[in-house]
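Please produce the structure of this protein holding beta-L-arabinofuranose.
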Amino acid sequence: MLIMLICGIIDMSPDIPQNNTERKRVKIMTDDPIIKYMYTADPAPMVYGGTLYLYTTHDEDELVNDFYTMYDWRCFSTKDMEHWTDHGKIFSLDDIEWADDRAWAPQCIERGGRFYLYCPVHKKNGGMAIAVGVSDSPTGPFRDIGHPLIDEGDWNDIDPTVFIDDGQTYLYFGNPELRYVLLNEDMISFDTNTGIVRIPMTEDSFGKGGHMTGTTYGEGPWFYKRGGLYYMIYAAFAEGEGRNEHLAYSTSDSPVGPWKYRGVLMKESSCFTNHPGVCDFGGESWLFYHTDELPGGSLFHRSVCVTRMHYNEDGTIGECFRSS
Ligand code: FUB
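Below is the modeled complex.
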């Protein structure tokens, strides 16, 4: 149904993948939302070899139990931020024997010529956990390592973000608490001596807000370093009832904090969630995010968009505006 609707708007019907198993290459022109023939969310860009790969989640058209209905992860790529190629489904719950639901916000990173896709999933008879898919290609297929990387038995283990700094890989994650591990060089295990470190959820670090820790920090962290400063961008809740997520950010002089709250990056939209993905590409800085702007959109039917980011000389970031 959605496909038929969108085909009326842009003439792409001959090449649109009709089901999850097809791996056709489809060219898309950037014009927000970027992907107009299916619902996508939780954008995670990765720049590799002159190409920007965009990993996303996939909101199914048909909902089960009127909740997020998400079974697989998708990949799109561009060389010019204008023309996009759809690489189809690159990893799914079917590939993870120990998981049964909730293919949520991923991030991919390359190390030593291999690609590691970190993905939150619901563990059979458990809570949320973080899976790792490994591939020799940025577009997969990814193979599950056979067990969770992070599995604390609670619901906090979602939304991994990874960054390599000076040879050490840091993996942050969490809702409502921000936590991190130090990944070992194999990228599929972590330093158990350091363990799972809980970041102090203080107002100084994340601002006074409306989420469960009393700060703005909600979920969807995106961790990186730029110009000597470490950035944590995240989905955030302002104080008060019925707020949707906006994007906010904190900075630090160290990869492990302490973090300093820096304010709102993008105001909330009509969509309950938002999710940042940041990269530099083609000489510009980009913020990927999601809204509910596609026809038929809702909190469970989201679509990935992109806008430019502007860093000030002192490292602060100017407010980012949605494209519509
Ligand atoms: O898309 C499912 C969940 O909603 C993600 O893991 C969160 O970041 C929020 O976008």
